[in-house]
Amino acid sequence: MAPLQTFHDSLLAALRLIVTFDPDLVEIVALSLKVSLVGVGLAAVIGLPLGAALAIYPFPGRRAIVLVLDSFMGLPPVAVGLIVYLLLSRSGPLGVLGLLFTPTAMIVAQTMLVLPIIAALAHQFLKDLWHEYAEQLRSLGVGPRQALLTMLWEGRFSLTTAVLAGFGRASAEVGAVMIVGGNIEHATRTMTTAIALETSMGNLSLALGLGMLLMLLSLLINGAAYVIRDLSSQRP
Amino acid sequence: MTTTALPLELRGLAWEAGGERRIDGIHLDLAAGPRTVILGPNGAGKSLLLRLCHGLLTPSAGTIAWRGPAASEARARQAMVFQRPVLLRRSAAANVEYALRVRGLGRGERRARVAAALARTGLSDRARQSARDLSIGEQQRLALARAWASEPELLFLDEPTASLDPAATHAVEAVIEAMHLAGCKIVMTTHDLGQARRVADEILFLHRGRILERQEARRFFDSPATEEAAAFLAGTLKW
Amino acid sequence: MERRPFLRRLAAAVAGIALAAAFAGNAPAGDRFILVASTTSTQDSGLFGWLLPAFTKATGIEVRVIAKGTGEAIKLGETGDVDVLFVHDKASEQKFVADGFGVRRYQLMYNDFIVVGPKTDPAHIAGGTSAADAFKKIAGVEAPFASRGDDSGTNKAEIRLWKAAGVDPEPGSGKWYLKTGSGMGPTLNTAVAKGAYALTDRGTWIAFKNKGDFEILVQGDKALFNQYGVILVNPARFPSVKVADGQAFIDWLISPAGQETIASYRIDGQELFFPNYAPGS
Q1: CA–CA distance from A230 to each of A221, A236, B131 (Å)?
Q2: Domain ranges of chain C
Q3: Please, which pLDDT band fits residue C1 given cuts at 50, 70 and 90?
Q4: Which residues are CB-neighbours of B22 under 8 A, at least 6 positions away?
């Protein structure tokens, strides 16, 4: 099929799905958002303080941890998926939890994937910021825990960027969620695994349409974040 | 103040970095009362000495000790203002309030002190503005307001007006004067001779990490005891 | 700041919601479902969309299918991660049971493979009745051939045909013999794009939407019949296997109702799967 025809058809396919609120599509989109947002949320809750701690507290082995974290930013999703799969398999150490092929497993995999990104970026942003603040905060008698919280708040704009970068990675990946989720219809099928499936069935227009929809969602979420940034940068 | 952490006693204080002794063999007693200005050329170690006294740096040798009855509270009774004001990304009032919350003050007490501090530094109408949007002179006054709000008995200032124009410098010096009159001990570094003349009650002249002279201000400017000090005042001191 | 306790509460709320959402998505207690490992070719044929709702309607048991290549599907059974296998490679299935991973193999249905290729047919195999002969001709002119190369049932059938043709395609790997290591769909995508011959099951081919100028060139050879088997994973080995519901699925599949449902699945009016359960098979 001529490429231009495919693009034209996929635009139509995407529009048709959106306008008719196709229930299967709604289900897939809802699951994608849930998995990625929760995964990124958990990664942020763990990763932001971790990155901040690495930036602020001097302790032996810190540089080694930073090096490891920076390298893990480039973890291939499919490798992370495989690791989580082996952990959660019935024959694996955490098999008793019965989490394989559930959305929870997908969230776990995405959290593991995104955590190094958020922590490493947070560390890099805050290390520079800390230079600016360290002496004054110590002069004011700010304790270590309070310093960490203050720095997280001071750096909130750059840290939002880090979290968005994490979200971009999570919502776009297919390797990890495919392996640990199994792409089960009505249970663990996300936008990316659906795209993979439709492609493999030769429904290229539909697959591309879903892809465009995914990009649109990503645009909306980033847009919302920017609006929030703008609004909050006007208040003191 | 009836109880105080002062005097601050430095004995044989030294600090080195990169194999070089940047502060060398300082013996000093800082007592309440006179405004002490540390004078000296660039690289003399003025900022280092201030940071050592305030506890931001650890000495390589020698001792720093607070000898007053309230010595155990010394940490909470000091404040420092830096050459460039470091303010948080929030309103002017919130910046002052932050410092007080760190000290564990209750909300009512905080509010009162914030309002008073802003009033005393002429920043009341800036209270709700983002601190980073203030002019640099106003920001430095805000840093002083923040320091004042915690009611320190000792205020360290490291070249506080080096980045400011004459009008802002004047405003800042007025605040420093007010704090002095309220009973706060002032210890300030500067390389601005005019400022030293205006502000100092006593001068510590620092050169290459050592205190070469300690003198009542007028006498220092009229007749410095050492060659280096004379050369410095004449503008001919070579590093 | 007043913000601090608010932020803490907000963070706690967000964390709470996140955890709730994370677990709420999984089947609430009371939802009955079994996990079935099957192959991508079966899934791509659309059979499950027809077959499973009928079973769920009859029994209230939901069936969740994880579709992989046959090799991977069997591996899922060997690690106890699924309840039932629904695959098409008799030798591997028998070994699975013999090794103690499965309880018993039931012969279920068959579909057939076909050889597809470009209209231009460089190896001139169109209309042939022997798949092995066709393969010999393809190798003879080194015409491009897309293989799944993924240890799947389809792949193993393909390898058996090369053997029957007396040809070893491996030396041509990367030149005319293209091993995609993928499922049937992606392999067909590659085949169409490169004008390469391919062995595919009829079901996937009929449902495939990207045929380009390809046609069915060889079909009907007995050697192209593809037998399916269904096996319950051994609960003695993996206590977590849902024995009752898994066996209910198998029982339904081999029942007249199940077999009839299989036979009635059509695409373009064509029957794809031919039920052939016989007791004692």
Answers
A1: 14, 12, 17
A2: 33-111+227-275, 112-224
A3: very low
A4: B15, B16, B45, B48, B209
pTM score of the predicted model: 0.81
Residues 76-135 of A with CB under 8 A from B: 132-133, 135
Q: Which residues of A touch C212 (CB under 8 A)?
A: 1
Nearest to B76 among A141, A154, A235 (CB): A141
Q: Measured between alpha carbons, how far is A185 from C233 in angstroms, rounded to an integer? A: 22
DSSP-derived pairing of the beta strands C197-201 and C145-147: parallel
CA separation for the pair B219, B213 (Å, rounded): 11
Least confident of A200-204, A226-230, C8-12: C8-12
Chain mean position to CA B58: 18
Angle between helices C256-263 and C243-254 (to 10 degrees): 60
Contact check, Cβ <8 Å, A103/C238? no
Poorest-pLDDT segment among B77-91, C167-181, C242-256: C167-181
Strand partners, C197: C145
Amino acid at B227: E
Query: How do residues B204-215 score in pLDDT, each as one tens digit?
Result: 999 999 999 999
| The two domains C33-111+227-275 and C112-224 share their CATH topology (first three levels equal) | yes
Q: Which of C4, C8, C26 to mutate to test the interface with A (most CBs of A within 10 A)?
A: C26
Please determine, looking at this structure, whether the domain spanning A27-205 carries the CATH number 1.20.120.550: no
CA distances from B124 to B24, B73, B85, B120 (A): 44, 30, 18, 8
Beta strand C33-39 with C62-68 is parallel
Mean pLDDT of chain C: 88
CB contact under 8 A, A200 and C184: yes
Instruction: Tell the CATH superfamily of the B8-234 domain.
Output: P-loop containing nucleotide triphosphate hydrolases (3.40.50.300)
The confidence score (pLDDT) of residue A213 equals 87
Q: Does the pLDDT of residue C24 top 80, yes or no? A: no
CATH for the stretch C112-224: 3.40.190.10
**So where are chain B's domains?**
8-234
Note the pLDDT of residue A137.
Answer: 96
**pLDDT tens digits for range A187-205:** 889 999 999 888 877 778 8
Alpha helices in chain B, H assignment, sequence order: 46-54, 92-102, 107-120, 136-149, 166-181, 193-199, 217-222, 227-234
CA angle (A160, A162, A166) in 5-degree steps = 115
According to the model, what pLDDT value does residue B134 have?
Answer: 95
- Per this entry, what is the length of chain C? 281
Q: Which of A139, A153, A236 sits opposite B91 (nearest CB)?
A: A236
Q: Is A138 helix (H, G, I), strand (E, B) or coil?
A: helix
Q: Write down the pLDDT at residue B235.
A: 87
**Domain regions of chain A by residue span:** 27-205
**Does the domain spanning C33-111+227-275 belong to CATH 3.40.50.300?**
no
Q: Which residue has the tokens 């849902």?
A: C242
